[in-house]
Amino acid sequence: MVDKERVKAAVREILIAIGDDPDREGLKETPDRVARMYDEIFAGLHKDPREYVKVFQEENHEEIVLVKDIPTYSICEHHLLPFVGVAHVVYIPRKGKVMGLSKLARIVDTVAKKPQLQERLTSQVADVLMDTINPIGAAVVMEAEHLCMTMRGIKKPGSRTITSALRGIIKTDARTRAEVMALIKD
Ligand SMILES: Nc1nc2c(ncn2[C@@H]2O[C@H](COP(=O)(O)OP(=O)(O)OP(=O)(O)O)[C@@H](O)[C@H]2O)c(=O)[nH]1
Ligand SMILES: [Zn+2]
Q1: Is 77 touching ligand 1 by the criterion CB < 6 Å?
Q2: What is the pLDDT of residues 115-139, one digit of tens each?
Q3: Positions of CATH 1.10.286.10 in the chain
Q4: Annotated catalytic sites, by residue?
Q5: pTM of the prediction?
Q6: Could you tell me where the DSSP H helices lie in the chain?
Q7: Which of 23, 67, 95, 137 has the fewest CB atoms lying closer than 10 Å?
Q8: How much is the ipTM here?
Q9: What is the pLDDT of residues 50-77, one digit of tens each?
Q10: Could you tell me which pathway this protein works in (predicted)?
């Protein structure tokens, strides 16, 4: 669990450290709000995304399953600022072993809810798929804007970072990979 009391105390310290007054009207409840927010946006530190997976047997469907444009919010581990975008999750079931579509988005959500790197988020989602339903192939592509590159530092609003993680046949077979990428771009 997120230690909310500890977060509260730390946020109060930060407010003092930046030279503001944590006891002024507008900030009085801020440490508590931030603690509740961290409990929500870092919940993935305390959950195993594999637990969501429920497997169905769907005859011999050994074709692409793609859920695209899954809205994704995560926090960059270097600056603790959000990166925001979409994830596309694909797999090709082995012997009809499929999972509920919503579970793909639940896996993304859980893996996103911790201090992350976009690369790691992308590959962790692919690895959860491989570990749980052992598909013939899996791919995760993510496009995101990092606020640490937008509102500070290099200040490049609008720049997007694209990462992919390819597994199994989607990695090894060029034709399958091309088909997957075409569907994602569509
Ligand atoms: N690879 C990768 N880098 C990230 C991600 N999120 C943020 N970063 C980068 O992390 C790097 C941290 O660089 P540092 O030089 O340690 O920190 P900094 O001085 O604040 O860097 P600047 O952002 O360039 O001002 C920056 O280049 C960020 O753009 C991510 O998801 N993946
Ligand atoms: Zn950052």
Answers
A1: no
A2: 999 999 999 999 999 999 999 999 9
A3: 4-41
A4: 76-79, 118, 146, 148
A5: 0.94
A6: 4-17, 30-41, 101-112, 118-133, 147-150, 169-172, 174-185
A7: 23
A8: 0.87
A9: 998 988 887 778 899 999 999 999 999 9
A10: Cofactor biosynthesis; 7,8-dihydroneopterin triphosphate biosynthesis; 7,8-dihydroneopterin triphosphate from GTP: step 1/1
